[in-house]
Amino acid sequence: MVRSGGFAGIEKRGECDSTSDPVLARLVDRVDLGSVPPPGRIPDQFLYRIDIDGSETAVGEAQLNGPLRELVHYVLGRAR
Questions:
Q1: 3-state class (DSSP) for residue 9
Q2: Region 31-53: what's the mean pLDDT?
Q3: Mean pLDDT over the full length of the chain
Q4: Which of 74, 36, 28, 75 is nearest to 57 (CA)?
Q5: 15-54 burial: b if 16+ Cβ within 10 Å, else e
Q6: Model confidence, pTM
């Protein structure tokens, strides 16, 4: 997962393995990347690139909600 954009344009990356993290596995099971709307064109918003087992999508901060928001916060919260 990569968060980019925002006012300062600082990139943040996070990666986790759901096979060894049951909380992450439950979050991943609740996310359907195929139903994620395309990112809107909002100045200075964060853009999230998400890859779950080879399925990738990009979503804007304004479209980030529900289980996907929980997943993003969980993964990036553990990023160093």
A1: coil
A2: 86
A3: 88
A4: 36
A5: ebebeeeeebeebbeebeeeebeebeeeeebbbbebeeee
A6: 0.84
Give every strand in the sheet of 12-13, ordered side by side. 12-13, 2-5, 46-52, 55-60
Residue 72: other Cβ atoms inside 10 A: 21
What pLDDT does 80 receive? 64
**Secondary structure class of 59 (helix, strand, coil):** strand
The pLDDT score that the predictor gives to residue 62 is: 87
DSSP tag of 5: E
Coil, strand or helix at 6: coil
